[in-house]
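Tokens for chain A. Residues wanted.
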């Protein structure tokens, strides 16, 4: 396992915003997930945001920013064994815009 060259902990807002641009929405059956490389560690992160955005995506609807925390599940030095979510500690907000 790799720690992505990164110990557990938060990242700067600038780094989060840059990396978060690579995240995208993915429809998985009735659920909507936010998926993509974590801005902090680069591991695949996937959050079920169905409940957060409500039932059904409306064309052109823009939602408020959503708080996301890395849950890559990979090993990151310094993370408590029982830390949840089990990610690298990176967190920030993402603007959800449906198309
Ligand atoms: Zn990671
Ligand atoms: Zn991460």
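Reply:
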């Amino acid at each position: 396992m790799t720690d992505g060259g990164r110990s557990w902990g938060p990242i700067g807002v600038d780094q989060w915003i840059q990396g978060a641009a690579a995240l995208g929405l993915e429809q998985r059956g009735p659920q909507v997930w936010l998926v993509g490389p974590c801005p902090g560690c680069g591991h695949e992160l996937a959050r079920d945001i169905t409940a957060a955005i409500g039932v059904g995506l409306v064309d052109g609807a823009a939602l408020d920013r959503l708080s996301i925390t890395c849950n890559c599940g990979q090993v990151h030095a310094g993370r408590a064994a029982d830390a949840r979510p089990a990610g690298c500690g990176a967190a920030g907000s993402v603007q959800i815009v449906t198309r």
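Helices lie at 13-20, 50-53. The chain has a mean pLDDT of 85.
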